[in-house]
Design brief:
flat; alpha+beta; 4-stranded antiparallel sheet
């Protein structure tokens, strides 16, 4: 084999490697462009990743076509993208797909999709089911279950859940609320942290922790949202127009990056761990706000908020140099 053939072979291998890598980067870069208002550029970045089967890119394109940003508004194409993403196991896409079934009055199918997504932890599906279990539309009336689902949606940072949650708290008995909270904690696998836990009788540490959690919740508005369930006689799309469902509502495995410092069995243990880490590295963490992420087995402790992995990695290296273990975690 001549040098020319070898050179061509190496170039082909290099090009193949380049083509195999950028799917996740395309999605993250597209999210950054979307947030900057460059919708067309975002769509152009997602298209190649979607062609390679990236579920996040497929989902984001569904949102773009649904909202008519960067592309002409086309609900049929939006539904197709959501369906393709859902087939790959994308829970938020499955939730949106349920909304399209509601538009065709296929409520049973929509509920089936939302139940599956809710089981996988999707806050928006839990919100939908909370609304419906409270009113009994399409599902049996189950007020504790409705309250439990809405607690989970609110705890996940879904701001639109706050108002119906407060209405439920006013309408339900103490026993119904206790049953709903127990169900919510069974589904999440961990105690819930809500603003209600940081009332007047709470300790300063508990109030501070809940304040941090609220800041995280407000920041999570950039995560996936969905429209409210419409009242009788009103279409989903009418409700969408009335509720401003045009925010940059994208899901990506690389929307943001944080530095994880540890994982703990409970929120209290995570707070204690953070206090110890901050005390040992005051210069590095003095003005840092921790982020507590609940997962099946406990609570993750993370810090920072970076648009690019490289910046998060550089921060993690500083932390390691100070003697604290860490790694970079992508947040969706």
């Amino acid at each position: 084999m001549g040098r020319s053939m070898i050179r061509k072979g190496l170039i082909a291998l290099a090009m193949g490697a380049l083509l195999a890598v950028p799917a996740r980067a395309d999605v993250a870069d597209g999210v950054a462009e979307w947030r900057a208002g460059n919708y067309r550029e975002a769509v152009m970045l997602w298209l190649p990743a979607a062609a390679r089967g990236n579920s996040h890119a497929l989902f984001n394109l569904g949102l773009a076509y649904r909202q008519g940003r960067g592309v002409p508004r086309d609900l049929d194409r939006a539904e197709d993208f959501f369906k393709r993403a859902a087939e790959k196991g994308h829970a938020p896409a499955r939730t949106y797909l349920g909304i399209f079934h509601v538009r065709r009055n296929e409520v049973a199918r929509a509920v089936e999709l939302w139940q599956q997504s809710a089981q996988e932890g999707d806050a928006h599906a839990r919100y939908m089911l909370g609304i419906r279990h409270f009113s009994g539309r399409g599902v049996p009336v189950d007020r504790p279950r409705a309250y439990g689902y809405m607690l989970l949606a609110d705890n996940a940072g879904l701001t639109q859940a706050r108002r119906p949650l407060r209405r439920m708290e006013a309408a339900l008995s103490e026993q119904e609320k206790a049953d709903g909270r127990m169900l919510a904690e069974q589904l999440s696998g961990a105690p819930l942290v809500t603003l209600a836990d940081a009332g007047a009788e709470a300790s300063p540490a508990e109030r501070a922790a809940a304040s941090v959690e609220q800041e995280r919740a407000e920041a999570a508005v950039a995560a996936v949202r969905t429209v409210n369930v419409p009242p009788p006689g009103q279409s989903v799309e009418t409700v969408r127009a009335n509720t401003g469902d045009d925010a940059p509502v994208l899901a990506s495995e690389a929307v943001a990056f944080r530095v994880q410092l540890g994982a703990y069995g409970s929120r209290a243990a995570a707070e204690t761990g953070w206090a110890q880490i901050q005390s040992a590295n005051a210069a590095l963490f003095d003005s840092t706000t921790p982020v507590f992420r609940t997962f099946e087995s406990g609570v993750r402790l993370r810090v920072g908020d970076f648009a690019q992995r490289a910046a998060a990695s550089a921060y993690c290296e500083q932390i390691k140099a100070a003697g604290q273990a860490c790694f970079v975690a992508a947040e969706d």
